[in-house]
Target: Mannose-6-phosphate isomerase
Amino acid sequence: MKEVLFLNPVFQERIWGGNRLHEEFGYEIPSDKTGECWAISGHKNGEATIKNGEWKGESLAHLYANHPEFFGEKEKGQNFPLLVKVLDAKADLSVQVHPGDEYAQEFEGELGKTECWYVLDCQPNAKIVYGHNAKTKEELKTWIEEGKWSELLHEVPVQKGDFFYVPSGMVHAIGEGIMILEIQQSSDTTYRVYDYDRKDDAGNLRELHLKQALDVITVPCEYPVCKKVEEHTKGGVVTTLAEEHYFSVYRWDIDGIFHWQQKAPYTLVSIIDGAGRLIVDGTSYELQKGDHFLLPYDVTDTQWEGKFTAVLANNSQKRA
Model:
């Protein structure tokens, strides 16, 4: 095929959402309560479609299910394994946790949800909830029941460019005024632990999922360590943010002409700032902030030109 696949995002309205997805990226969003852009998604709750070329209008889910050769696989896949989002937290998100694969498959019928966050922008003094302070399950349960949130929750200040790896089982929450790029397993299962007694548009308290949360929260909390490695090369700087079980994530800062050969079966790319172009097999693709696309298996030799920043992800596999 040797064709770069650009994606049409799917937008999700959320009680905590805003309008920065339009202001920052120019997206046509459904309202000023838009919290999520599902930028590269094969999930049934928000299937992105191909924007260009032979497969224009087809869903990524259909392509993955019916053309495994595009993804370096020999057999048809069931569900595209990764999901890339842009989140606009105008208000605090709920304190939540996601299950691992085994629990999610047994009780939810889908993958677990390990994710990571790249902070695109944030207001001064922004912070996230990243983990908890309970030492035992009993202490965790007691503090939740008694509403001892200040004792329980571990808060971390954030700034633009920060990166956080959030494994399943970790309590977390994105704070007010933060915009992030999220790369995760393709799952839509979230268990709310606490939601600030917030009410929905109908005046009802939002549902909590305390039983499930207590089942899956890791106690004591385990904080992952991702080794950040910068490589300066002709045309740019490549920064490794994470190379983990479910995905590997990299940031590129391109300034000039950069040659790159794809080693993974496929790669997901999000342009988060600047502009440029990508040349593949003699075909030139214009790139701008807010573009999201997929490099299929047969796209190997690439040339990138311009001045831009991109975040790339793959599912940690190598070519056979």
